[in-house]
């Protein structure tokens, strides 16, 4: 078959959105009232100390309140590990951010006021410039089921088709634990789609995975719409070539760079998921293949797989990664091996050249919770750095196997579901020239006079992929490594000030009251022993 014939065949195959699989969750019209739903379980959620770190209690409460199926699905999609409690921001922020970034989408939170305050603050800190909806509750509205009626009323008020394509309702920890049945909301009001999701911190370990909870729910809805008939066309005319959907939030220049590399293969870059508009979901589903650039989008991948789309893991990162990825994408889309080889020959020398022009020397530990940690580590190693430790808060999935194997072959230890303690231990033991990590890791490294860079703001906010990404990290990384002497001077200057028991602001000379800590420690140990004796979780 010639290239032209193959292109025609690919266009024919992918132009039809024909899906397979279980259709039992087709959206139904018509409202369902909460009195048909499960019993609310208020008592089990009102004890002392519930919140981010009360996972077991909240999980048990949610199961008792009829959320067993939801918990089972979350546990399968986002398996827990040592990092099974929020150790960074509230996971629900991931879903909230996806909703807030979409055009014509209203996003509403249902949860404790303190959680909603934090999530709203974080949203605006990251420049949301959109309203965060909130349906407040109190003990009475929670226990009587009135909260669900309030949510339902809010949804009906919001569902104006002139303003919105979709209204998203996110159950946080307490409403999930008490069984607020968002699944009983109407699936559609006046043509506005209603998406209710449970995103409890005790079921979704990271905010990265929470992005997948909403993206997966939207893809499932859009897939069933496409199965039932014609759907809204994209806002802008797309390439006539078969497209590759990009899964994961990447730097804006990366899809452009990927599109340049896909051109010679006869393909084009499709939308990035999570999408910025509802109608892009149809285009995302109508692809030749899906590039799982971020490997933790389990629910989204399930939807694409159900739609019959091939999934390709890893990403075009550095020389080796780009070579393998072009081959895998080309093969998944039925491109001739000679065309794949010609495309590799066109771009790989440029990547090698860019890496050689921007070398990095030094030992770097790397940790984060964005899901792109393994890709960044690959780029650092190909730039010349020694990277002995890579920690990611995200779970191991088949879509990052190629990256893990490549890194392990280069001597790196890859820690999935890394806890903060593991990330800190790596910095202490390995004494790197630079620590890239989350805020507490950066803080610890700097206190040891080790230069450090915050992963989210300084590393993942750069292009990483293809020719554009090669060499993009060298400037910031080399500048940080070169600042070692400045950190040593600061450490010497501040040495002994405000550390340990003397930390903080004192009106008198600080005194160590370690006897208080010892007393509370003994009380906590006695309480744990008593719970153990009574057969309760310790
Ligand atoms: S909703 Fe978020 S902030 Fe609130 S208790 Fe759950 S994990 Fe913590």
What is this structure, in a nutshell?
The protein is an alpha/beta fold and about 550 residues long. The chain has helices spanning about 5-15, 55-75, 90-100, 115-125, 140-145, 145-160, 175, 205-230, 255-260, 280-285, 300-305, 320-330, 335-355, 375-380, 400-410, 420-430, 440-445, 455-460, 465-470, 475-480, 485-495, 515-535; strands spanning about 105-110, 130-135, 165-170, 190, 190-200, 245, 270-275, 290, 310, 365-370, 385-390, 415, 435, 450-455.
* Oligomer description: single chain
Largest sheet: 5 strands, mixed
Average pLDDT reading: 88
Tell me how many strands there are: 14
Tell me the domain tally: 3
**Low-pLDDT segments, ≥5 res:** 1-40, 42-49
User: Strand sequence of the main sheet, in spatial order?
Assistant: 2-1-3-5-4
Q: State the CATH class of the largest domain.
A: Alpha Beta
- Measured as a percent range, the helix fraction is 40-55%
Structure description:
There is one protein chain. Helix content is 47%, strand content 12%. The protein is an alpha/beta fold and 538 residues long. It has 3 domains: 3-19 and 232-351, Rossmann fold, CATH 3.40.50.1980; 34-205, Nitrogenase molybdenum iron protein domain (Rossmann fold, 3-Layer(aba) Sandwich); 358-494, Rossmann fold. The strands form 3 sheets. It has a 5-stranded mixed sheet, with helices on both faces. Helix 4 links the parallel strand 1 and strand 2. Helix 16 runs parallel beside helix 17 (439-447). It is globular, with a radius of gyration of 25 Å. The model is unreliable at 1-40 and 42-49 (pLDDT under 50). Bound molecules: iron/sulfur cluster. Iron/sulfur cluster is lined by residues 51-52, 86, 90-92, 111-112, 115, 118, 172-173, 201.
């Amino acid at each position: 078959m010639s290239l032209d014939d193959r292109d025609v065949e690919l266009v024919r195959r992918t132009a039809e959105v024909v899906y397979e699989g279980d259709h039992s969750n087709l959206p139904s019209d018509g409202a369902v009232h909460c009195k048909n739903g499960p019993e609310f379980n208020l008592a089990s959620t009102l004890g002392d100390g519930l919140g981010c770190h009360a996972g077991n209690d909240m999980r048990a409460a949610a199961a008792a309140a009829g959320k067993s199926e939801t918990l089972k699905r979350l546990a399968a999609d986002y398996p827990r590990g040592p990092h099974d409690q929020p150790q960074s921001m509230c996971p629900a922020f991931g879903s909230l951010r996806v909703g807030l970034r979409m055009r014509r989408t209203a996003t509403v939170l249902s949860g404790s006021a303190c959680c909603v305050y934090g999530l709203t603050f974080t949203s605006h800190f990251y420049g949301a410039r959109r309203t965060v909806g909130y349906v407040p509750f109190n003990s009475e509205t929670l226990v009587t089921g009135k909260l669900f009626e309030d949510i339902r009323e809010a949804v009906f008020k919001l569902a104006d088709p002139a303003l919105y394509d979709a209204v998203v309702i996110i159950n946080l920890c307490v409403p999930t634990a008490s069984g607020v049945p968002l699944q009983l909301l109407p699936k559609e009001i006046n043509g506005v789609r209603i998406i209710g999701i449970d995103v409890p911190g005790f079921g979704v370990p990271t905010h990265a995975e929470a992005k997948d909870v909403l993206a997966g729910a939207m893809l499932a809805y859009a897939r069933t719409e496409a199965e039932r008939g014609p759907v809204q066309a994209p806002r802008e005319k797309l390439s006539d070539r078969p497209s590759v959907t990009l899964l994961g939030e990447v730097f804006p220049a990366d899809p452009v760079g990927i599109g340049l590399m896909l051109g010679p293969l006869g393909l084009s870059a499709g939308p990035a998921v999570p999408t910025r508009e509802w109608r892009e979901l149809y285009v995302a589903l109508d692809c030749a293949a899906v590039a799982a650039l971020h490997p933790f989008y389990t629910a989204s991948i399930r939807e694409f797989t159900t739609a019959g789309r091939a999934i390709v893991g890893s990403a075009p990162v550095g020389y080796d990664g780009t070579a393998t990825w072009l081959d895998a994408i080309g093969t998944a889309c039925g491109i001739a091996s000679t065309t794949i080889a010609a495309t590799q020959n066109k771009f790989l020398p440029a990547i090698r050249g860019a890496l050689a022009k921007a070398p990095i020397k030094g030992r770097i530990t790397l940790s984060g919770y964005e899901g792109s940690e393994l890709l960044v580590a690959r780029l650092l190693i190909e730039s010349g750095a020694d990277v002995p430790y890579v920690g990611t808060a995200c779970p191991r999935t088949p879509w990052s196997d190629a990256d893990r194997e490549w890194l392990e072959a280069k001597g790196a230890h890859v820690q999935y579901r890394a806890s903060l303690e593991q990330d800190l231990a790596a910095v202490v033991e390995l004494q790197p020239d630079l620590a890239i990590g989350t805020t507490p890791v950066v803080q610890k490294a700097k206190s040891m006079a080790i230069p450090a860079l915050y992963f989210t703001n300084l590393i993942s906010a750069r292009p990483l992929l293809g020719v554009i990404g090669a060499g993009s990290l060298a400037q910031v990384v080399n500048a940080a490594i070169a600042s070692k002497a400045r950190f040593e001077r600061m450490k010497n200057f501040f040495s002994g000030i405000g550390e340990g028991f003397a930390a903080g602001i004192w009106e008198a000379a600080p005194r160590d009251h370690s006897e208080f800590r010892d007393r509370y420690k003994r009380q906590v140990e006695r309480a744990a022993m008593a719970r153990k004796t009574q057969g309760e979780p310790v």
